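User: Quick sanity check before I run a bigger batch. Here is a single chain. Can you write out its predicted 3D structure?
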Amino acid sequence: MIQDTIAAISTAVGEGGIAIIRISGPQAISGTDAIFRSKISLKDADTHTVHYGHIIDPASSEKVEEVLVTVMKGPRSFTAEDVVEINAHGGVIAVKKVLDVVLQLDGYRTAEPGEFTKRAFLNGRIDLMQAEAVIDLIRSKSDRAFSVARKQAEGVLSKRIKALRQTVIELLAHIEVNIDYPEHDVEAMTSAYIREQCELAIAEIDKLLKTANEGKILREGIMTAIVGRPNVGKSSLMNVLTQENKAIVTDIPGTTRDVIEQFVTLNGIPLRLLDTAGIRETSDVVEKIGVERSRDALQGADLILFVLNYNEPLVDDDRQLLEQLKDRSVIVIINKMDLPGRLELAEVEQYVSSDAIVRMSVLQESGLDILEATISEMFFEGQLEANDLTYVSNVRHIALLKRSKQSLVDAIEATHVGIPIDVIQIDARQAWESLGEILGDEAGDSLIDQIFSQFCLGK
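Assistant: Done. Predicted structure follows.
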């Protein structure tokens, strides 16, 4: 049973209209009441009410800050414990003074990263999948990613995993009966039932895994490297896509010396853009380091935007890079279409499909809509589903679903070769445990600690 009470600043550090200190635990209300002066005692306050007053320094009895205090009595709170939120004036000094007074109370300590959400999980208010969705809500970079995370936080995906576990537990119960009462076992019927239940579960897992690629992209974004020779318009493209002057643009080749990263959303598609140094042979020591980093970014990219200059013919550096990118997800951008053409498009089409060639003028901001449509077609088969937001987006969940599926496949194969039913039970139980690990039912303490350590302080 949790005995201590935790407190932390829940709003971002810096100046703002208000700052919120969140407190959770058995002494949240009584402790805060000892340093709060108002017309009503917080102990007597109704749950989910807000009260005006002042935080008092118990050592000097002086007013520290004018505040609004919200009382939420467990289990009707985020952590399922008594929770108090102190709304103070936004500002580093004001909120720090209040937090210092709060942490002087007996039984209080500073919350660890993610500990409020962890308590919600430990107290049974949410499962581990819902807890992880809270991180995704905070980190969402697009409306659709936010919607997917919100659905997961509400438990939509958890319900499907629980239904899967129910299918497997029914299979396990049937196997247990046949192990305990072998005299009533009809081997042919048992094998058929095992295959039927396993195939039902596998079909549902396959439906979820089908969304994994799109879900992972929505969660993490498409790692997109903008590459090409110097002075073809890479940095200009970066600036147009981000609507910022993030990268320095000049007519001098080799201006970009390092990899610049920026997150953007194109028509609902999240991209982690990497503007790289122009790839070419150079004797400049600093530029050479930039070129090497560009090559590293190229290796780790999910998508490569290879920029060519319409006003220049292909050179050997272009041909070599195009040859290297033949088996990669690449879109060739023919930039500077507003200038006279000296580039042989037919030669470019020897390396990539015409569907993966986009003609643009970054200067005139033309062709952006075609680029967006091409990326969408490449990664989402044209469009994302508008209504079904049940995407599997977490790498941990994807791995466990695959592990569960393999265990079920092993169980089916075991029935065909006459393996004893008590051995088949091991495969079925492994599938059930893998699904339980997604929800947190079978997760160890070290995994739980690792997951919640990724949260920001105060969440």
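The radius of gyration is 29 Å.

User: Great, the batch can go ahead then.
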